[in-house]
Amino acid sequence: MKDQEMVLSIIVNAIQFTLQHAQKASGHPGSVISPEERVDIARAVLTALSEQGFQVTRAPSEPR
Questions:
Q1: What is the pLDDT of residue 8?
Q2: Res 62: pLDDT
């Protein structure tokens, strides 16, 4: 479950980054999506991936 929460957080951050980048590029504030809506979108992405057979698991860390 912890891995799934981490992936959820990554998706939410990606949505946030994409919205900020789009707003800067257009010079307009654009449509605002609330943090709750971002989490809802991220959960929908995880659900869709799960329905297609993907599983969220953490790969072992590799030494750098």
A1: 86
A2: 67
Of the candidates 63, 58, 59, the one whose C-alpha atom is nearest the C-alpha of residue 3 is: 58
Two tokens at 49? 């991936």
Residue 9 half-sphere exposure, CB side, CA atoms within 13 Å?
6
CA–CA distance, 53 with 27 (Å, rounded to integer): 40
Q: What per-residue confidence (pLDDT) applies to 29? A: 63
Q: Is the confidence at residue 31, as pLDDT, over 70?
A: no
Three-class secondary structure assignment of the chain: CHHHHHHHHHHHHHHHHHHHHHHHHHCCCCCCCCHHHHHHHHHHHHHHHHHCCCCCCCCCCCCC
